[in-house]
């Protein structure tokens, strides 16, 4: 990319330390149950575990057989069972069933339950209620953070979003606080912490509390600044179609734990193939942040270069050939393989995405973001629903419409909802109920009802909790205020100018120049202003909870200036690859390096699927 | 100064000295006669159990506790049973082992703490002898009963009694015995006449000390060193055997020429000892027998007790408290006559210039840290050795016990100001130092019954202020233990971490307050703890009422119920009259139900609830769903289709695909399906079946609400350009270009675009042109585009 890049971006700290810590602790825990044992692993912990310790390592510590937790009766013959699970009620219930079944047939085994990353009281209560608390030993594997790449760290907790923002269950907040604490103790001390959102505030407080309890070590900071942001501060961005390569791959093929499975149509063979997508992949690293329209050109240039490199052979004598084969050929071959894979992926995406309806969908999205030709957009959505095109896509467009327009007119709301139910089934009544609760899809209405309820409930509790209560309710009443925010922060560039995607001029390039993600814009603004001053109106519209704190030991003038330009951004509730690309762009422009910590990588489909109630 | 060596006695190559620690502050009329005495090591407290002067059955002995300097700390008449042995724990608690095997524990100030028993068997057989011992596991108790059986308790804080195997041939108590810790195992070494046995968990093994002189008929006393490494045996022939406890090596044997059993026998050795020795005490004689076979004799003018220390022996008498030890090498270096050691030179310098630290200048390469830290240590030692404190620690002992423990000891003695001063002086981190002392002080303060709650709470908060790492909840817990609930609640108010308040609040049955605090803490897990607690404590109605006022707790409980107790969830919604959620609840339930009738009845319940919630939309949608389900069932029964559970859209599609047009029409009318949708559905279904005639008829049936472009597109999708062409003419002008392009008619598209003079559309057509396209057409297009652009 040929834009003005600041060359002095600082080096990122080494996050592989996190993996080593996690592995060492896991080994320690496994050794607490000496002897051969079978290990049952929660399905969604399999991939993260794989990044930490491979099967050989597990076998070295006397793990005999590995099973995925499937909530069925088990077939293991081992007399020691070890369960590595998330602290979920259903899973613990299943373990109780396993143990009780063994008891019923008089089989004696030793059981160990390892909760990752922490245990919850509810789980232990369940063990107690089921009468097996004496039969099992429990432990915690404080594996909070999985580095997915040099600059992406994930908590791998996709349920965070639903639990926290929909169910009002805040138990993961402390987990987020502990993760922050871990990062602080390894890479801190942080000199500045900014944040916005209720959950961010709570996570920040939880972290501070843990700092107070623990011992302080004085060390040189690797990371200077931290920005915490709640996903519900900006719900528009994750609902937009992604058009940057990495995001698009995620939307279409679903990247899981930094790894994607390309089907036969991509690999142009009869097998599918699992590929790690990170900065180690040279080809991918160069295109991941590019707008999709640029990728093909880039790849063909790359192919030509590769050919030239191969062609060098023709004029070589034997000796040169020997060095070529031993030194270059392997690298070229690898690059060749990767290149053909990404070309395959691009082709497959091209097929899907250059189709008429995708273009029209993008056009609709852009109109919604701009607030332009809303009637046409509604008709488009209606047609989309009527033709029973994808259930999730329809919902995505509905939500975008509601978010950008501050809710739907009652007439539209009812008619679209009715049509939606006709197309996809009445059980989606529950989905709509959830969407409404979260504020993703609401009906415009005169706002009194909520304030009445608020004051009624408010009277019942004492003052201190009333504050929190109002918060809880205000999240119900939350208006997106998207239009006003967009104007204030210039999120939508003027559409009369041509946007050259080859030379992006701002973060809007990640959405074809149509929209600068609100989340990233906030980060940019706060870093520029060194706080929230001048953004009062913005934060009021977002519903506040913003904060900016200077750390106690942050005023150290000797603090490495490099560290001050490394900024850790923590998304509570998930972030998209597009946002990461936007931050990388911002970093290059301003000489920052961003480290993204997220509860999980998300995208529109994941956000909306988590709202479904009737399936699964 | 010159006389400092006056009381030094040579023993082999080394010197021994006896120095006075204190002139005892107590006044004991009869000295230590008829007293049971227990003195704790490391300059610890001394307990006396004095027999009453008048030997009447009603007379009670007096238990007295003193500091090492003889300052009284407690005194009270002993009202419990006969005591066999007194001893001190590592935490400065007094153990009184009674004849019946009960062990009573008192603190330094004579306050009863708790008791435990050494086993039921003891009650009958009685304790003959008992010993208190210290090991890495803590303080232990060993007893031998009237049945000649030994019982051990390794750690009185984690009581596990171990009855040791029987000793063959033992009647009554052994002639002497000792407890020793070896290889992480605690054993008993005992002598029965001339026989020596080692008694461990599983067996009783006879042993012979190597080279014990054969004249002996009986071993009558034994002593194990402070470190459990060395053993001394005294025989009735007056021989003192010294060796290692594992009985493999003999160090020496000394003939004392005294044949009566010594009253007490203890090792005196220090780390890196030159000349270890055993100190034996008879009525009037104190004998120091060195390994070198030399001895020193002291005459005693009063009844005394020996206390073994890490680096010597303390001798406590009624008037004096003395320390007998091998002269430490540092002292020897300084004070030995004509010594030229640096220390000695320094001392000279001090004498000349009255400032010892001047001398440092003459020492090259001397790092200042040891000097500074040694000066600090000395100051600390001097302050605790002070008569009023009475902890006569040597420097070696101090280093061994650590500052931490010393602070603890001061805290046990309630010497809070001194403890705090030492912490500050040594710059101990607040956590381990000042804060810890303050916490102890506060815990002690809350037990002062006479002071009102208000003033105690205020005093505590003022003193503790902002000290780091203070846990108010611990202090409150202590107040609660003393029955001062109100005070505890007041103290909890000071606890900054609301999470810490909760467990105690629950314990005090202040569960409502606990719930609020838990919610305030933001720790969901804690909230959950309280909720579970409340659930078990309260009746259901009250419980729900409580939750109702706490939305966070309520939502949490709902989450739990969703997974665990569906019925409770319903009750919750019922109580709140939350008809909307009840409706949702029934809808959710209906999808888990496989039987249609049950499903319908659940949906009916949902409809009722939605109606109550005035949610007409949801009610109507649910009613329609019921209608649809019935319709589907009827059709499934009549026609054998598998429609049940499909959405309206899918049902229609299935009907149209299967040629049930009449039924589809009926659904379309009954459910007021929008025309657009119906047209789309029918269009797609007919195209899928490639029923082109029917499609044409349908297109002509009336004006299409979705236009005719879709007709073109579905045909193209099925690769039927011929059919597609039929509809191109019907397409609206705006969509003409698209329609022509769809069937690949470039010329037609060009015509349409040029006619519409739309620059965008002309460009679209141009983009589709290839090198093979007719030149004329291209030119026309380009021309038209430039004209359109000009406008």
Task: Please give a handful of descriptors for the protein shown.
heterodimer; A: 616 residues; alpha/beta; 12% strand; B: alpha+beta; DNA polymerase, domain 1; 44% helix; 21% strand; elongated
Structure in words:
The complex is a heterodimer of chains A (616) and B (791). By secondary structure, chain A is α/β, with parallel strands linked by helices. Chain A contains 27 helices and 14 strands. In chain A, strands 6-7-14-13-9-8-12 form a seven-stranded mixed β-sheet, with helices on both faces. A five-stranded parallel β-sheet of chain A has the order 2-1-3-4-5. In chain A, helix 4 runs parallel beside helix 5 and helix 13 packs antiparallel against helix 14. By secondary structure, chain B is of the alpha+beta class. Among the domains of chain B are: 188 residues, no CATH class; 97 residues, DNA polymerase, domain 1. Helices cover 44% and strands 21% of the residues of chain B. The termini of chain B are far apart. The chains are: A alpha/beta (616), B alpha+beta (791).
Helical residue percent of chain B?
Answer: 40-55%
Task: State the strand order across the main sheet of chain B.
Answer: 1-2-29-28-27
**SS summary, helix count of chain B:** 29
User: Low-confidence parts of chain A lasting 5 or more residues at pLDDT below 50?
Assistant: 448-477
Distance between the termini of chain B: 119 Å
What is the helix content of chain A? 40-55%
Using the alpha-carbon principal axes, give the shape of chain B: elongated
Tell me the number of helical segments of chain A per DSSP (H or I, 4 or more residues long): 27
Element layout with pairings:
The complex is a heterodimer of chains A (about 625) and B (about 800).
Chain A lengths: L15 H16 L5 E5 L4 H7 L2 H6 L2 E6 L11 E6 L3 H16 L5 E6 L5 H9 L6 E5 L5 E4 L2 E3 L4 H8 L4 H17 L4 E5 L1 H16 L11 E6 L5 H4 L5 H9 L5 E4 L1 H4 L5 E4 L5 H6 L4 H20 L6 H36 L2 H15 L3 H13 L4 H15 L4 H15 L3 H11 L9 H13 L2 H14 L5 H8 L28 H12 L6 H7 L4 E4 L10 H4 L1 E7 L4 H14 L2 E6 L5 H6 L7
Helix pairs in contact in A: 4-5, 7-8, 13-14, 15-16, 16-17, 16-18, 17-18, 20-21
Chain B lengths: L7 E4 L2 E10 L11 E5 L6 E5 L11 E5 L5 E6 L5 E6 L5 E5 L3 E5 L5 E6 L2 H6 L1 E9 L2 E8 L4 E4 L7 E3 L12 E7 L2 E8 L2 E5 L4 E4 L11 E6 L5 E6 L3 E6 L5 E6 L8 E5 L8 E5 L3 E6 L4 E5 L4 E6 L2 E6 L2 E7 L2 H7 L6 H12 L14 H18 L9 H18 L3 H10 L8 H12 L7 H12 L7 H10 L3 H8 L5 H10 L3 H11 L2 H14 L2 H9 L2 H14 L1 H10 L3 H14 L3 H17 L3 H24 L8 H10 L3 H10 L4 H15 L2 H10 L7 H9 L3 H8 L4 H10 L3 H11 L2 H10 L6 H16 L1
Antiparallel strand pairs in B: 1-2, 2-29, 3-4, 4-5, 5-6, 7-8, 8-9, 9-10, 11-12, 12-13, 13-14, 15-16, 16-17, 17-18, 19-20, 20-21, 21-22, 23-24, 24-25, 25-26, 27-28, 28-29
